[in-house]
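During the second half of the funding period, the structural biology subgroup turned its attention to how the target accommodates small molecules. The most pressing case was nicotinamide-adenine-dinucleotide, which had performed well in the primary screen but for which no bound structure existed. We therefore specified the complex as follows and requested a full 3D prediction, including the ligand pose.
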Amino acid sequence: MPNIDIPQLDPLAILKGQSALVTGGSSGIGKGVAIEFGKAGANVAVNYSHKADEAEEIVKEIESFGVKAIAVKADVSKEEDVVAMFKEVISTFGTVDILVNNAGMQKDSPFHEMSLEYWNKVIGVNLTGQFLCAREAVKEFLRRGVKKEVSVAAGKIIHMSSVHEVVPWAGHANYAASKGGIHMLMQTIAQELAPQKIRVNAIGPGAIKTPINRVAWETEEAYNDLMKLIPYNRIGLPEDIARTAVFLASDYSDYINGSTIFVDGGMTLYPGFRTGG
Ligand code: NAD
């Protein structure tokens, strides 16, 4: 049996020396992840699609932790944008060690009225976008290989999935299909690339307080309704997801590969069965 070294880490800077790209990093969960990565010692590229000023604000905050940060514009559903984004990040930081495939959107509609445009838009950003970014990241991980002083893995990918990877969601067929697709994309890449020391995992957030689901938390009535779905009885915050992402990006999670970690206050525990069934 070979000797297996468990990496020794500085818990206050567990991503020190690594470079990360966070897609959709200028708001909500992506913003939380980008900031927490900077605090953990990583250089961070904050991808945005529209609002350069919001991304630049986050870049300033990340730089205040003594690491490098850049804002990089790209529509993740467009191949040429994604290829150009990786080129820019790699030429700025030297490489990319961590990809957080976070950009996502909803375009909701009753199923029988769902337009092909809504279907293609959501699949294009949420699923094709994650494929394109993962592919470019893997090319770089394979080119560089393992640098033990940085990480025992050649690279890490974290897909932002959802509880709707496993929980069906009426009125959101395009979104739920994209998240179900992410699950098999993530596990297939993980299986294919584990021998090359590339780790691929997903986070399945429950209800997190961000702009994407404002209607679910902005009034007291909506919030109380939402709590019926969350046994832990509070909404999640971007920090809840960001801390999980730091763990999954670090060598602390070196033996986790091909898993979705649900960060959902128990939303996937069929809360309706607490008092019924
Ligand atoms: P958000 O709307 O704040 O963030 C989504 C980000 O993706 C935005 O910054 C947006 O500009 C970006 N984006 C959209 N289309 C893009 C494109 N074509 N190219 C590049 N960027 C694009 O919402 P959020 O809640 O922070 O969502 C982040 C991720 O978390 C999404 O994948 C979402 O599906 C997932 N998620 C969120 C929740 C929740 O409760 N908030 C729950 C489960 C999963």
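Two results from this model are relevant to the next phase. The domain at 19-266 is CATH 3.40.50.720 (Rossmann fold). The chain has one domain: 19-266.
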